[in-house]
Design goal:
The chain is of the alpha+beta class and 450 residues long. It is 55% helix and 16% strand. Its EC number is 2.7.13.3.
Length: 450
């Protein structure tokens, strides 16, 4: 099975989640610090502006308007060491400017002594408070906040750098943690894949960590132990059952044979001979079922296999079936590439090809033709020009006891089931294609996405 991509992998999603959490945490912390700095800066500006405004208001009350204008001019003439700017505006009841460095009254209410940030036409931003003086006069005092804005800019840069560093560390730490977890999970998956491939004794190595993955590995091994015990028990029961059934059947066949030797009754002889034939059919059925079950149990198990010359096997079968085809009036053609070798069980590969050929001979009428092809791969094709197999039945024909209409001869319809079981044991695929007319059985290596 192919490894999932980054966004489909659990470990990839965990790493990305850790990265997202770290970035969101850094952003949230910056917003909190920004709010605290901004509030503290506003409070300091408010105290400075309120102090200056109160002093100017006292001058207006204790002296006169001319003195107030003089004090505003003095303040404007001063250069502040911290680089901050000050703004003043004194207007009369008609709104005419009397003093200050602002040309017009900004959007701020003097009637309620409103205090807030105001953006000036030139783009500067000041914190100002306005108040109503006597005889309809209004006074506004404002201060810039260059230091606060510079501090916030430095904080933003610092948090951006820190956030990038935290994100990088989160990615690196998440990557290595995910790799370690993936390696431990893949050990368990490899054990399942090995068992699925037929290596029933495969187990997941027990990690030293006492955590959930160690518990998963332990439970996996315990389950595989149980599966192996069940498989061995089933195999033992099957072998014992086969022996217990086959032995009395053979004894019964022997007794029937002796009974046939002791009688001259033609009717009785025919009945006894039919009984023997049925007994032999039951034994063949039992042997075929055991062969299928045993072969399926060894699926993917390559132990006991050796390099086999499939060309020799195919040539021998071609000679054998060529003679039978001639007797039946069927054309038989063999196209066998020399030197085709594969790691296989020679007896099982012989049986696989012979079962495919037997199936073809069942359905091809006299005058038809059968083709046996062998190419490197191995790639084996058995094709006939018989009635063919409907698309709906092309998988069903590999099931046990399935028999399509028009077959020649008897049997229990287990040949194709055994052929597929042998193919799967050798990691090969067997399927049917349309031959137009007829059917084409194709045996080839399994497609693997790993």
């Amino acid at each position: 099975m192919p490894r999932p991509g980054l966004f489909r992998s659990v470990f990839g999603r965990v790493t990305l989640s850790a990265l997202l959490v770290s970035l969101l945490s850094t952003l949230a912390l910056f917003l909190v610090v920004q709010k605290i700095v901004d509030d503290d800066g506003r409070a300091m500006l408010a105290r400075e502006v309120d102090t200056d405004l109160a002093g100017l208001a006292d001058i207006y009350v204790s002296s006169d308007e001319a003195e107030l204008r003089a004090r505003i001019a003095d303040r404007l003439a001063m250069n502040r060491e911290d680089g901050e700017r000050s703004w003043y505006l004194l207007t009369d009841g008609a709104g005419r400017r009397l003093a200050g460095n602002l040309d017009r009254w900004p959007a701020i209410a003097s009637e309620v002594s409103e205090a807030r940030y105001v953006v000036l036409p030139d783009g500067d931003r000041m914190f100002a408070r306005a108040t109503q003086l006597g005889a309809g006069a209004r006074l506004l005092v404002g201060r810039s906040n260059y230091r606060g804005q510079a501090l916030l800019a430095r904080l933003a840069m610092a948090f951006a750098i820190a956030g990038a560093g935290i994100a990088l560390l989160s990615l690196v730490a998440g990557h290595f943690a995910a790799r370690r977890l993936r390696a431990r999970v893949e050990v368990v998956n490899a054990a399942f894949a090995a068992v699925r491939a037929g290596r029933i004794a495969a187990r997941a190595p027990g990690p030293g960590n006492n955590d959930e993955l160690a518990e998963l590995a332990a439970n996996t091994n315990a389950m595989l132990d149980q599966v192996e015990r069940l498989v061995e028990a089933q195999r033992a029961v099957s072998d014992q059952t086969a022996h217990e059934i086959r032995t009395p059947l053979m004894h019964l066949d022997t007794r029937i044979l002796k009974a046939m030797e002791g009688t001259q009754d033609e009717a009785l002889l025919r009945t006894l001979d039919q009984s023997r034939a049925e007994i032999r059919g039951v034994v063949r059925l039992l042997d075929s079922l055991l062969d299928i079950a045993g072969t399926q149990a060894m699926r993917g198990d390559l132990r006991g296999l050796a390099e086999v010359d499939l060309s020799d096997i195919a040539e021998s079968l071609a000679d054998l079936y060529g003679a039978s085809a001639e007797d039946l009036g069927i054309g038989f053609h063999a196209r066998i590439a020399p030197g085709v070798r594969a790691r296989a069980d020679p007896m099982q590969m012989t049986r696989l090809m012979s079962n495919l050929l037997d199936n073809a001979f069942k359905y091809v009428p006299s005058g038809g033709s059968i083709v046996l092809e062998l190419a490197p791969g191995p790639h084996i094709v058995v094709q006939d020009d018989g009635p063919g197999i409907p698309p709906a039945d092309r998988e069903r024909v590999f099931e046990r006891y399935v028999r399509l209409d028009g077959a020649r001869g008897g049997g229990h319809s287990l040949g194709l089931s055994l052929a597929r079981a042998i193919a799967e044991r050798h990691e090969l695929s067997l399927h049917v294609e349309e031959a137009a007319p007829g059917a084409r059985f194709v045996l080839q290596p399994e497609d693997r996405d790993d």
